[in-house]
Amino acid sequence: MTQMPCNRYATVSAEILLYRPGQKTQKSEDAIAVEEPLEIRVRGRGIAVTMRTPGEDPELVAGFLMSEGIITRREDIVEIAPCLQSDLPDNTLNVFLSAAVTVDFERLTRHVFASSSCGLCGKASIDAIRRSFPAIQSDVSVPAALINELPARMRAAQRTFALTGGLHAAAIFDSAGELIAVREDIGRHNAVDKVLGYGLLTTKAPFETSILLVSGRASFEIIQKALAGRIPIICAVSAPSSLAVEFARENGQTLIGFLRANSMNLYSGAQRIHGPAT
User: Fold this and answer.
1) Bigger pLDDT: 111 or 150?
2) Measured CA angle at 122 (ends 116, 124), to 5 deg
3) Are 277 and 264 in contact (CB under 8 A)?
4) Please, are residues 214 and 189 in contact by the beta-carbon 8 Å criterion?
5) Cβ–Cβ < 8 Å for 12, 32
6) Quick one: three-class SS letters along 76-121?
7) What is the pTM of this model?
8) Active-site residue, from 6, 83, 118, 235
9) What is the pLDDT of residues 71-88, one digit of tens each?
10) Which residues lie closer than 8 Å to 12 by C-beta, 6 or more apart?
11) How far is CA 83 from the centre of its chain?
12) Mean pLDDT in the chain?
């Protein structure tokens, strides 16, 4: 396999055999989404390994730490840098935090491993899964017709998905529907961490009047990460889980599922959506 120049190391090229009805089998090339481990270290101590698609790794790390409640603002981070002492420095990032930030390493190191399909898989206790953040108080209001337009806007910005068909995406829009950031990753939770990290590192966060759109389903973890980023409206093109709906209702978040070009299901926070869908 050879690396392809899209989003750094997001894809590789593989030789394949094409099987098509009524045609002879033939050799071809296919672009495949990359999945590699990333070890996250804080002050030199390993706290997590996540399977991700390389690219925007500092954003991923910053978003992960924010969604874990370790940091809340750009000033909490002194530097995010490759760990040159690691055997795989490109896949190991060390975060140097401000001396004012207190880190509970005993709690953090319960997060042993996060697969690309589930960022909760390495957490050893229910306490480690649930993080405490204040409920959302935002009074932002958005037309339903605008919400319907967002999936097409996100899809148009998914460069690597267009090549591979194998990546999830998360996008942040402002209340007027303007795209603030879109990030792709083999794990939907990583894509969310990347857009949250983008907001943190560029001081655009918190996203108190913004909209988060994710490809695929809306899990509890996605809603919790949105809460950490202070995002009032979360949309998914597929279904939410029961715990995601419960969590959104408990925390004053607007949750939309099955978002299509002319329809949506509104599960919580209806006061923020007005007017008919397109």
Assistant:
1) 150
2) 155
3) yes
4) no
5) yes
6) HEEEEEECCCCCCHHHEEEEEECCCCCCCHHHHCCCCCECCCCCCC
7) 0.87
8) 118
9) 999 999 999 999 888 888
10) 1, 2, 3, 4, 31, 32, 34
11) 23
12) 87
